[in-house]
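Dear support,

We are seeing what looks like truncated structure output for some complexes. This example has two components. We would appreciate it if you could run it in full and send us the complete token output so we can diff it against ours.
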Amino acid sequence: MRIRLTHITTRSSGQQARREERLELDELRIGRDTDNTLSLNDIAVSLHHAVIRQRREGIFAAAVDARAIRVNGRLANVHRLEPGDVLRFGEFALRVNPLEAGDDLALEVEQVDRRGSEREELSARTRIGVRSGLFATALISLTILGLALLLWFSLIADAGRQSRSVGKISQVHSFFASDCKKCHALAFQLVRDVDCVTCHASIGAHVSSTVHFDEFTNRRCASCHMEHRGFQGLAAIEQKACAECHGDLEARGVETQTGSASDFDRDHPQFRLSLVSEPGTGHRERVKWSSQSREKSGIEFSHLRHVGQVVAGSSNNKEEARNMRCGECHELDATGKRFTRISFDKHCASCHVLNFDERFPKRQALHGDPKAMREDLRGFYAVLALSGQVQDPAAPAIIRRAAPGRELTEDQRRAVLQWVEQRVQSTSDFLMNKNTARDSRAAPASEGACAECHQVVRAASADGGDGIASVELADHWLPKAEFSHRAHAPSPCKDCHAAAAVYDAGFVPDHVRPAWSVPHAGPYELALPAELLGASGKSPSKASSDILIPEIAECRNCHGGATARASRVASDCVLCHVFHRQENGPMRPEISSHAGLAITEPRSNGSSLGGVQ
Amino acid sequence: MSEVWGPHSFLAYKRFRYLKLSGLGVAAATALYALDEPIGGRSGSTAVGYALGVGSATLILWLLWFGVRKRSYRYTGAPLLGWLSSHVYLGATLLLLVPLHCAFRFGWNLHTAAYVLMSVAVVSGMAGVLLYSLIPLPMTSNHPGQTLEGLLQQIADIDAEFRKLARELPDLHVQAVTESIEKTRIGGSVLRQLSGRDRHCGTSRALELVKEAHQLEGAEKEAEQRLIAILALKKTLLARVRRDVRYRALLELWLLVHIPSSLATLAAVAAHVLVVFYYR
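Here is the complete output from our reference environment:
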């Protein structure tokens, strides 16, 4: 295709210049890009706008990038060129001229328009882009304002204190939660123990002050007590916190008798019992649990003889006769953890009567100190003698026939005293020494009533008379652990103390048994000896020296380790053990005293003397 | 999909080097978090919590530095493409790193506010990546070989032509032409830019007006025909321009969220760190 292309340019003077070029090519490409045959420098022209090609039917112009070309004021995709046609490309006009010889096409290109103000006017109505304008201004202003508010509120405003908190305050501290300085006394410093001790001055130390263990002493309160976690109490004590040290105390160089433990189920030593070894001294011997262990409490007592037996109701308040159950003597204390002391008056006296004179069946000897008992007897017999009520044929006549207003001679007085002393001595012997086998409950025959339960020591009393060996009942065999009997109440006593809860149906005391207490209607939750034997091979407890507290294996039947699932109770260290032990004194004595705070006396360690009163 | 996913794109930079690095980082942080069982439970104040916090804060500073690097043409280190690739991938990891730092403890407080702001920044950045992967192709095919300025110039040229044509036409048509010239707006409010069209477009109305008008005769008829053709062309051009404006708005809009929220994150994180260490 041969093309004659004429460029017409108009100079500023108005003079027109023509430049002709002859082209021979397959197609004439028109566009803004410089690689076009006809490059038209106008933004309104597409890079590759149109193309002119020769076909059999003639020469055609077709749109390329542009969706349409403008020919003679109309739009067309393809147009067959005829002389006189005018194609518009932006400011440029491309005219088709009449052919001359040798040419296939004659074209004339001229910049016909100079743009006026339309583009500026369009610009005035055009707003493109979102980075400026009301929206962007509003968005950025709001962001800045919001951020400023956030920072002001959370850093400066009093009302925004909560927003500085990293989490919910524990329930126990929530009453002063808005006063950050209560704990965070100094800026940029860790919460100090002194700020805890301000309120918690009396909190007990974990170990006695004689134990020095840097790794432990250097810990802060906040090492374990984590605030802002929303816990009920803020001590998030996990087993591993304990096991960190207690897992292997020896390896950490701690001198202690405490065995290492890291999990109740997997790694915990057998219980060590604090047993009474020398009654009356308060001394405890810590021994590893063993069925062979024996405690020397100084008292004779057979659970088998007592449990399940019928006790007569006291006639005063007309209680009904009933079977003796565990709770008859073992009464829970106020904490529900352990039991109140066994007391003779309360728990024994209704059956173990200490009457000593057939004529005065309700007169009981004093229980407790033999010397006091003899003094009481002395007074009793003296009054008896002096008031002439003595009916003993062996007594001096002056005693049997006392006449009012008569003064005693020295001999008579001596005879009275001698008789009184004789009675005191014989009654004391009668009560304290069991000469004949008699049942003490058959009133008034209380012969040997003391020896029934106590060991009588000859001439051991302060008055030279017979004394009673010291008695001391431990009220806590595992003082380093907490155990709540009340929490275990759903389980009957026999589940743990089987040997103590044996019901001897064959034992028939003197008392008449109510119908409901005959065999096969045995008292609630007591076992017959045969059942016990069948279950565990243990024998019923007949002596107070028996160890009736279960060993660790029995606890493990129900209590698993910290991660126990399903059938067993998950039990971590703190279920039984208390970290802060007041018997060790205050946790931070150095701080407590610095702060001039009252330090409460360490409480007794709970192993106070039990005893029969 | 466009070049954004292609082998030479910033996403595939150096065979997804930063995607792998981010995956590795997230896996390492998750493992660290899962294996650590501190006394009292996981939180921002345990050793691992601190480590993740310091790491996240450093990452935030480094991500913000991209804003500086992007504008620095004298920089001679790693290419901007690499910076962008790492900016995108490492930035996304923050969405998980920060919850791991605080052990998923959130609340109505400054600290969570900082995380929310950071999330807005990260998510808007992801939106940006998505938009940059979706838009360029349809944007180019919307007006191949032509720039927006070119399209606008064509429209301006049509307006000029209208004025010439109007001399040959009766009043009603002149009114239509005037309507098309003066009531045609391009872009405008953000919503209108995003909509990509204009319900009150002067040109559309002009076209309706002319079509409703009486048929003209003779020379006027020919002028009318030309007017209708040019109005139709202008309408097509306007549709393209408005689509283009819409694409441009979308490409800018996410940045309008991304940059302020990023800077706000910086401020909030600074406040978070200050508060956390003030109340230790």
